[in-house]
Amino acid sequence: MLNWQKFQRPQRYLGNEWNVVQKRIGDGTLRICLCYPDLYEIGMSNLGLRMIYSLLNEFEGVVCERVFMPAEDMYEFLTKSNTPLFSLETKTPLYKFDVMGFNLSYELNYANLLHILYLGRIPLRCKERKRVIVLGGGIVNPHPLSEFVDVFFLGEFEGKARKLVEILKKFKDKESRLSALCEIDGFYVPKFYNNYLKNGRYYFEKKYPYAKFPLKRVYVKNLNTSYYPFNWLTPYTKIVHDRAQVEIARGCPNRCYFCQARCFYYPYRERSVSRVLELVEKIYKSSGYENFSLMALSASDYSHIKLLVEKMVEMFGKKRVGISLPSLRINDIVGGLYKELRKLKKVSLTLALEAATPALREKINKKIDVDILFKARDIIKLLDVRHIKLYFMFGLPEEKEEDVKEIVSLVRRLKKTLKVRINLSINAFVPKPLSYFSNLPMEKEETLIKKKEIISQGLLKEKIGSVSFSFIKRSMLEAILSRADETLSKVIYRAFLLGATELSTMAQGKM
Q1: Smaller CB count within 10 Å for the chain: N or C?
Q2: Are the CB atoms for 38 and 221 separated by under 8 Å?
């Protein structure tokens, strides 16, 4: 029995949250361990992980448990005491599960995946182990991990969960499971394909006759009939996004040239107002959360956003439940939505401006009129908005020095006009696969450093709020990993051997 008082935030490992799933494990039970390769408070903020966990536990004869990347103190304890990493729900060592499923959405967590396998006493390479490792999430390019992951799921999991469970229960040996999965759209099994470079061109072909080719990303056609969890897991410790989440739309109708998510979650789909309200009511009653986030890549594009907010305000009456609307455009607030928003317990504004000049926003196809922000001063005051969060990028294609300097000028003018605290998140542009800019080179490091210095020096004496910058070497490493082939698996493995728990530590010179 572990002495939990030895660890910081032991709630990360207890697995006794409100609405946690506890099922009887009998002979023939398919045991799956679902892993998010980052800290508990980050993983439990991920909507995809919550959805997969609840969905798999709906199936008879299946038990799905969770594990997260342990913090430094727990990692040290596990290695020094020779204790295998265990699941939250039953404290079962990972090597005893039939299948490991990873939900991975960030390239710099690649090394964490290897650490979790290592701590769980599971061989790292596909050819060295008998159990199946499945990976899904927001990773578009599977090649750098193909040496370590047996099956990559391409797309949205809800529609294929039953098929996965049926195959895993029907076949007991690894080879039969992989052969069956590769014949189904949405499942990519690297061992059944060849990927090689010849005369300066990449070629991709299948070497197993029944494997699906070409590979297809699968998606849910109707969000109203798709699965959604309402017995909301409620942690006993603070997590990054400590609120209930209800997805109102998936995909994005806009065509920002830098955006990968628009292509990855294509096509754009919406849940009906009635279905969203049904989910909100069930989650509210089952969890006790008093803050809801209406999830969408662009909440402004939801067809009935004003009606939905009106109905939610009406539903909760004087309970003063908080509602967060990410990626809301200032146009919508000025257009009348503020009349409903002012009835809420708390209103916060988050705006992704990305570029400060109209010319550069046009080049990246970011359709937003910043001037409306200045005209909305009275409405922002009426809503009692205390702070606004703004997102910018630097190092964009065709960016000039005056575009960078205008970030400082724009923030200064907004602060003077709106008289609110402004929190800034300023990141180096990373070209990603599937985006319109996917084949463009990333800005050189010395140029990015110079541009970052222009912004930071310009904001140095401005009392605006908080300013956070992305670490440039980290962004460059992210660009490499997101567009690499399978040869980079050696780098990932080397980073793991050197102790990197996030590949960015290598870029920061900590190795």
Answers
A1: N
A2: no
| Domain 243-347 shares a fold with domain 351-485 | yes
Nearest to 42 by CA among 20, 80, 64, 9: 9
Task: Give yes or no for residue 468 having a pLDDT over 60.
Answer: yes
Q: Would you call 314 exposed, middle or buried from its count of C-beta atoms within 10 A (0-12, 13-18, 19+)? A: exposed
Q: How far apart are CA 170 and CA 40, in angstroms?
A: 32
DSSP 18: B
The average pLDDT across 272-277 equals 97
Joined tokens for residue 336: 């009348």
Closest by Cα among 324, 315, 255, 257 to 293? 324
DSSP state of 184: S
For residue 30, pLDDT beyond 50? yes
pLDDT tens digits, one per residue of 205-224: 999 999 999 999 999 999 99
Residue-range domain boundaries for the chain: 4-206, 243-347, 351-485
- Three-state secondary-structure class, residue 165: helix
CATH topology assigned to domain 243-347:
Transcription Regulator spoIIAA (3.30.750)
Contact 365, 380 (CB under 8 A): no
Cα 448 to chain center, whole Å? 25
Judge whether residue 337 has pLDDT over 80: no
Q: Is a pLDDT exceeding 70 seen at residue 508?
A: no
Q: Are strands 291-295 and 244-247 parallel, antiparallel or unpaired?
A: parallel
Q: How far is CA 379 from the centre of its chain?
A: 32
Q: In CATH, which of 3.30.750.200, 3.90.980.10, 1.20.1090.10, 3.50.50.60 is domain 351-485?
A: 3.30.750.200
Measure the CA–CA gap between 349 and 380, rounded to whole angstroms. 9
Alpha helices, H only, 132-228: 161-170, 174-181
Looking at domain 4-206, does it have CATH number 3.40.50.280?
A: yes
150-164: pLDDT as tens digits:
999 999 999 999 999
3-state secondary structure 422-457: EEEEEEECCCCCCCCCCCCCCCCHHHHHHHHHHHHH
B/e letters for 204-226, b = 16+ CB within 10 Å, e = fewer, are eebeeeebbeebebbbbeebeeb
CA distance linking residue 430 with residue 448, whole number of Å = 11
The pLDDT assigned to 345 comes to 61
SS3 169: helix
Tokens of 107: 């390239």
Mean pLDDT of 314-325: 80
CB atoms closer than 10 angstroms to residue 14: 17
- Compute the distance between CA of residue 128 and CA of residue 479 in angstroms, rounded to an integer: 30
Residue 324, token pair as written in the block: 């967060």
pLDDT-based confidence at residue 346 (cuts at 50, 70, 90):
low
Looking at residue 69, the DSSP 8-state letter turns out to be: P
